[in-house]
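[Automated response] Your request has been received and processed.

Submitted sequence:
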Amino acid sequence: MKITRVQIIGPEELLARLRMTPLKGYGQALIYQNVRLELVPDVAPKTLFPAQRYVLKENHKKIMHLVQSFQEFGFDPFAMEGGVLFWLSSPDSPTGEEGPIPFLPPVVEMSREPDGRLLPLINDGMHRVFTAMKLGRSLTIILAHDVPTEYPYYAYALARGWDEVLELEQLPDSFVKKTYRDPQNYKALFRNFNSVFEGIQKERKKTASGILQTG
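Generated structure:
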């Protein structure tokens, strides 16, 4: 995997595009249209609450590789002032490149939980947060305030935060990944970031570059 070039996404463009993020259901309501979005630097990863009970070691390794690769371009993915699109060398592509692939700060929502706590809940970018934590780094996040209460994040925050997260080589079929707020219709509350940054949520097919899109 070799990054051939990068294109910076400025903070204004980044937040403007995120405001157009629709839900999967509920008439594709624009979840962030009227909320306060801000880029917050120097956040301690341990203070952010995951909803997912696992991280995959392979995805962590890929994030680590990206961190090292970005350094060649003078770019620190944990101190982002916006976002970035990057391209990978790909002999299978007519252009010799694969991309653009988006890489953004993790998206975090202030989420009201059943016990009444208002917690910074990781919505997108759990492996990025995990990697920063493993490296002893703080990081920049995109923080959403005052998300409409009728459209909460589709899963609950883990009560004990990262203490409940397992590092796995692969995900067992029976593993309980998250506790959903509405188990029968949880997908309706998905934040569809793919509609504003194509490819950021879906897993990419392996190519000669050997990368999969990771969270």
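Summary generated for your ticket: The chain has one domain: 3-182. The beta strands are 3-9, 36-43, 54-56, 83-89, 97-103, 107-112, 118-124, 139-145, 166-168.
If you did not submit this request, please reply to this message.
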